Amino acid sequence: MEARVFQKDRTGTTASAHRPSEGRLTAVPPKLSVECRVDILFLLASSAAATPEGFQRAKAFVKRFAQAVLGEASRARVGVAHYNSKLAVAVPVGEYLDVPDLVRSLDGVPFGGGPTLTGRALQQVAERGFGSAAWTGQDRPRRVVVLMTEARSQDEVAGPALFARARELLLLGVGSEAVQAELEEITGSPERVMVYTGPQDLFNQIPKLRGHLCSQPHPGCRARPLDLVFMLDASASVGPENFARMQSFLRSCTLQFDVNPDVMQMGLVVYGGQVQTAFGLDTHTTRATVLRALSQAPYLGGAGSAGTALLHIYDKVMTVQMGARPGVPKVVIVVTGGQGVEDAAVPAEKLRDNGVSVLVVGVGPVLREALRRLAGPRDSLIHVAAYEDLSHHQDTLIEWICRGEWGPHPRGSLQGGTSAR
């Protein structure tokens, strides 16, 4: 399908090359033009809790966005869906190739009422929201879902959001302060959420939204060769519910990388009453299989020893026999509730001396001094106040990994790390 092209007719009226325009477009500021090829599906909450007024505000926002952003230089196509207990695609992406027609079509989109099932809507959007706008090969545009809501979801959103992001949908959130935390969980980052304080402030989010559509948050990182091992605290001090939150956090991080034997390899070690290699560096060769394996990692319980787990990684994971690649940078990410880390400083230093970088993500009221010793002289430590806040720190962790400022180390070498032993 061709991208929309706007042309001037003899009278000077802006019209679509695909169908005649029935009205003039609002002047489009050149600075708001979308330069990348992108399909945008606005997902509007149309439930009782979202209120008819909130639904009308969301529709007005989409109209204003279309008038301000879609113009001659734009390579974007827009669609609109709304939801309560089920999803309805009111305007398929790319159906209206003329902005005035698109704006008028929104007037007929009805308010629904009923429950707010955002999780179900995200699942359905990932499955069929862009079905009528499929492009293939190099021409395939970036696909973006802009969720607009003022109502908290009445169903679980983390799993469906992960499902949508795994299908390479960029999720952005626009909402009131009441749903900010939920939108951050859905999008995977506070940076992808635009919060407004009142009706007029809503329209101020249009330039911010436009800026997100073509941004590449971590340029070049997906192609960076790396052997990465996650070390996950599965002890009784964490508990099964928080362990599941840790798993979700690791899955979200994994979505940022291309997993294959030539670029990124990932392994996972869990520790509690025992230490277990959930999967080694050379076990999974695709991101999809890594995501499934992360979901299936066992919760162990018992008293954990981070030091024992690090020695396990040194001896049995970061080795040539287990898939570690000579000459490739190596990183261990420790995600822990902070108990059982008192014995970890020396094993962590042993890894560093052999060229393996160690980053610590400590959650909750942790033993700060013990974690700082574990994090080492570069103070590679991210402290998270609560397990529910892990998703807010995803971008910080990804940036740390992508920046690559963790090596080489004074007494070690990244020419294979422990794999050279």
Compact summary:
Residues 39-213, 227-401 form the VWFA domain. This protein is of the alpha/beta class.
Tell me the structural class. alpha/beta
For the termini, the CA-CA separation is 55 Å
* Overall pLDDT: 82
Q: Quickly give the CATH architecture of the largest domain.
A: 3-Layer(aba) Sandwich
CATH class descriptor name of the largest domain: Alpha Beta
Instruction: Give the spatial strand order of the biggest sheet.
Output: 5-4-3-6-7-8
Count of individual helical segments = 13
> What is Rg?
24 Å
Relative helix content: 25-40%
Net shape: elongated
Please name the CATH topology of the largest domain: Rossmann fold
Strand content: 15-25%
**Total domains:** 2
CATH superfamily of the largest domain, by name, is von Willebrand factor, type A domain
What's the count of strands? 14
Give the low-pLDDT segments: 1-31, 132-138, 405-421
What is the N-to-C succession of helices and strands?
A: EEEHEEHHEHEHEHHEHEEHHEHEHEH
Main beta sheet: 6 strands, mixed
Structural description of this entry:
With 421 residues, the chain is α/β, with parallel strands linked by helices. It has two domains: 6-213, Rossmann fold (3-Layer(aba) Sandwich); 221-420, von Willebrand factor, type A domain (Rossmann fold, 3-Layer(aba) Sandwich), CATH 3.40.50. It is 31% helix and 21% strand. It has 13 helices and 14 strands. The chain has helices at residues 52-69, 99-106, 118-128, 158-166, 180-187, 199-203, 206-213, 240-254, 287-295, 306-316, 345-353, 368-375, 394-403; strands at 6-8, 14-16, 38-45, 76-83, 87-91, 142-149, 169-176, 193-196, 226-233, 264-271, 275-279, 330-336, 356-363, 381-384. It has a six-stranded mixed β-sheet, with helices on both faces. A six-stranded mixed β-sheet has the order 11-10-9-12-13-14, sandwiched between helices. Helix 11 (345-353) links the parallel strand 12 (330-336) and strand 13. Helix 1 packs antiparallel against helix 2 and helix 3 packs parallel to helix 4 (158-166). The radius of gyration is 24 Å and the shape is elongated. It starts with 5 loop residues before the first strand and ends in an 18-residue tail after the last helix. Mean pLDDT is 82; it is low at 1-31, 132-138 and 405-421.
